[in-house]
Automatic annotation (TrEMBL):
Belongs to the short-chain dehydrogenases/reductases (SDR) family. CDD domains: carb_red_PTCR-like_SDR_c. Gene3D superfamilies: NAD(P)-binding Rossmann-like Domain. PANTHER family: (+)-NEOMENTHOL DEHYDROGENASE, SHORT-CHAIN DEHYDROGENASE_REDUCTASE. This is SDR family oxidoreductase. InterPro entries: CBR1-like, NAD(P)-bd_dom_sf, Sc_DH/Rdtase_CS, SDR_fam. Transmembrane segments: none annotated.
Length: 248
């Protein structure tokens, strides 16, 4: 039986490596990407490595592509086993580094992709996830969304002050918890992954972990057994060089 995984923003970075690692486990990966050329190239690269990979055009801020992708997956596969909401943007407008100079427009832009996009995609494919035997939803979040981490004066995140990206991940954490609760009795597990600080285009390749390492927590949560947790933020623990649950 085919196990399928849809990964948004899978043409590069952590999303691409997630697709690669899931494919290596024999899972058919649906490579979501907003740019057809980049998405097709990523799917072909995975295919050349022996993966069952298909490009799916998916801009998480574009209703039409979301509905089209969900309909296509339904027609091709009938159900969906794994949804990885990975696509995100950092924002990074000039004023975004301090609350006092943040524009509502840049905040809106970041939330449109990092939060609203996740809900739009999840709701569109939820009927397909419900048809799978034991579906998993992984929302790729971040330690910078952790309120506890952000307020730790001795922690690595204390110097950060920007609102848009961190608050989008805090919102995503709550979104994760709410889906976990709604789907509690269905067998569908919903968790948030923390990749750790990885070198990708999102941060000008400044991270100290590789994108492939960043994909590991997502793959763990996407392949949880029946007795695994739901409603957790789980992944890289900064300073401990280990994986585990993080405080919200
Ligand atoms: N890198 C880190 O240190 C780090 C740490 C914690 C969490 N994360 C999270 O990890 C995830 C992956 O990030 P990354 O570091 O791999 O960044 P990345 O290399 O910049 O990749 C982001 C991906 O999201 C896609 N994307 C952006 N907006 C989209 C939209 N509207 N619709 C569909 N796809 C869209 C991008 O597509 P295009 O190529 O078309 O732009 C790209 O494929 C994100 O959720 C990020 O917040 C990253």
């Amino acid at each position: 039986m085919t196990t399928t995984a849809l990964i948004t923003g899978a043409n590069k970075g952590i999303g691409f490596e997630t697709a690669r690692l899931l494919a290596a486990r024999g899972i058919t990966v649906l490579v979501g990407a907003r740019d057809p050329k980049l998405g097709q190239a990523a799917a072909e690269k995975l295919h050349a490595e022996g993966a069952q990979a298909h490009f799916v055009r998916l801009d998480v801020t574009d209703r039409e592509t979301i509905d089209h992708a969900a309909a296509w997956i339904g027609e091709e596969f009938g159900s969906l086993d794994i949804l990885v909401n990975n696509a995100a943007i950092a924002g990074g407008d000039e004023g975004d580094w301090k609350p006092s100079t943040t524009s509502v427009a840049s905040l809106r832009k970041v939330f449109e992709t990092n939060v609203f996009g996740v809900i739009a995609v999840t709701n569109a494919v939820l009927p397909l996830l419900r048809r799978a035997e034991a579906a998993r939803i992984v929302n790729v979040s971040s330690e910078v969304g952790s309120l506890a981490g952000m307020m730790d004066r001795n922690g690595p995140m204390w110097p950060m002050t920007g609102i848009p990206y961190p608050s989008s991940k805090t919102a995503l954490n709550m979104v994760t918890v709410m889906y976990a609760k709604e789907l509690w009795d269905t067998g569908i597990k919903v968790n948030a992954a923390n990749p750790g600080y990885c070198a990708t285009d999102l941060n000008g390749n400044s991270g100290f972990r590789a994108a492939e390492q960043g994909a590991e927590p997502t793959v763990h949560l996407a392949t949880l057994p029946a007795d695994g947790p739901s409603g957790q933020l789980w992944g890289y623990l900064w300073g401990q060089d280990a994986y585990g649950p993080l405080s919200w």
